[in-house]
Records
---
Amino acid sequence: MGLHQAIVIGGGIGGLTAALALHRQGVPVTVHERAASLEPVGAGLALAPNALRALDRLGVGPRLRALATPHPAVGVRHPSGRWLARTSSAAVEAYFGDPIAAVARADVIAALVDALPEGTVRTDSPATLVTPGSTDEPAVVRTTDGEQPAGLVVAADGIRSTTRGLLLPQHPGPRYSGFTTWRAIVTPGRHPAAVGEVWGRGRLAGVVPLADGRVYVYGAALAPVGARAASEHAELQQLYGDWCAPVPQLFALAEPDRVLRNDVWELSAPLRAYHHGRVALLGDAAHAMCPFLGQGACQAIEDALVLASLLTPSTDLASPLPAYTAARLPRTTAVVTASRRIGALVALRTPAATLLRDTALTLAGLLPTRALLSRSTATYDWQPPALSGEV
Ligand SMILES: Cc1cc2nc3c(=O)[nH]c(=O)nc-3n(C[C@H](O)[C@H](O)[C@H](O)COP(=O)(O)OP(=O)(O)OC[C@H]3O[C@@H](n4cnc5c(N)ncnc54)[C@H](O)[C@@H]3O)c2cc1C
């Protein structure tokens, strides 16, 4: 009993994508989200070509692609405004066959939820794994309705996953990356002339145009863990006030109580496997990474599609789990490593080190566009597997 249904713990982007992918494969699924509502608004998300292709397979790609705002000048600048390396949205799309779609997180959540049958997602519904199950026994999850058996449990409960803690009590868990971040969505009236990132000493800022004239602006800076300013608004002006336009102007537009501040944590060591019994760990629960490559959610989306693609409705839902680990562990570990390397470059603080870094970026920026973009091929060129029933 219960062996043909799946339970997803966590209604973030990973859990919702997993639910949609399982639903597309004909697996009855319920998502339990402990929060009263899905995700705070107020932040954007870059959906890279790899994630967009996966979302296309699930039928929600076109809705999100339609929100992508092409821009003629995208790249990395020095705080003075000088371009270090520069390309355009059109060049990215021509090279990878797909854009990087910058969207509001709320739009991703809405697209996923709208594609799921009504009642699939239950908010205000904390869930705890009771037993991971085995070949002969279902997994069991406790919810406010009591204990539920399942043939498959998807643990998409984020970086502080209690499911991971229960399954792998020896794992050291998350560690602080050294960076804190600020995020806001503002409406400046029109899109800025230059978008992308600005890299300084131990800090960066990013400007991303969204649909409807909105702009997502973010910052990341080295800071002691847990540090908070009396006014984050004032802190942002202190950190970025003398940086090139439009960074300080956009931060100034953010409503003070709508600026999200979060410390960045990452999993300190890769897991040995992404499955245990009938449980699949997915997204940040499996491989939380620094945000510098903009791939955390993209990898969660890949996880979800791969997991569902390995299932056949007529066989045991848990049988493909070793293949899920084999497919996802090397790929996500490589992306985690690449994100950490970029974080190390942003963390440079001395004038000599940042000069060297900026010179290397400037030289890379002199490369022909194809050579510059080819550096992202390993991440962006991923092709999604087909789901059964697809042509
Ligand atoms: C500053 C910043 C910028 C980023 N930018 C990007 C970007 O541009 N592109 C990108 O791809 N990624 C980006 N990321 C990474 C991305 O946000 C995460 O990787 C992604 O959101 C992880 O999704 P998830 O579903 O795995 O986990 P989460 O979003 O953490 O969702 C986990 C959910 O599980 C719920 N939950 C936890 N425990 C329980 C329980 N016991 N019962 C029920 N529910 C539970 C939580 O409430 C939560 O809703 C960024 C991250 C940061 C910090």
---
Amino acid sequence: MSDAHGHHDHHHHHDRTGAKQPEIFSHERAAMLDDPAREAYAPTERIVELLDVPPGGRVLDFGAGTGRYALAIAKAHPDARVVAYDVQPEFLTMIRDRAHAAGLANIEAADAYQGTFERVLAINVLHEIGDADIAAIRNALAPGGTALVIDWDGGIERPVGPPNDHAHSIPEALDRLQAAGLRAEERHDDRFPYHFVLIAGR
Ligand SMILES: C[S@@+](CC[C@H](N)C(=O)[O-])C[C@H]1O[C@@H](n2cnc3c(N)ncnc32)[C@H](O)[C@@H]1O
């Protein structure tokens, strides 16, 4: 969709071609996303650090869920603007309530976004989005911008997360990103024993 100024809005659609997981993660399982146990293998503080938001940067959390990470980013970077994007309105309501309760004015929760971003975060999202959404992540990057893509490693045995046939191995993930026009590199990090950490740019 374009407005009178020719700006494009990215709205959600239902083309999930290429997605590895048959269904998206339901808002009915929100409590799992808020589980403090996640900190042991996907530490929020480290994710905020890896994202490396530049001063005054615009950040897109693609598939933000309950806002666990988007809210932490907004809090850590008061000068940044964070858009928490998700297709499930139940999640967007939760994020808005939490932002309000925390007094955070630099975060917006929406099912659409405009413009480009210096940083995009996609955590536990790659295996459930289609190829068109990976292209949308690419198109959302400002010149020089980077996407931090963290997801369950489907190439290892894990006690948590989706079954391996619903997750990507590292080579599969790199191939999918490359096919959508993103150059990605693994950024191995010992604090993520069950996930791969990729940094992607245009
Ligand atoms: C497993 S949850 C992860 C949520 C959050 N990133 C986290 O790690 O706590 C996946 C999220 O991606 C969202 N999602 C799935 N497909 C999407 C799409 N095409 N566009 C935006 N969000 C999507 C789901 O609604 C869900 O909130």
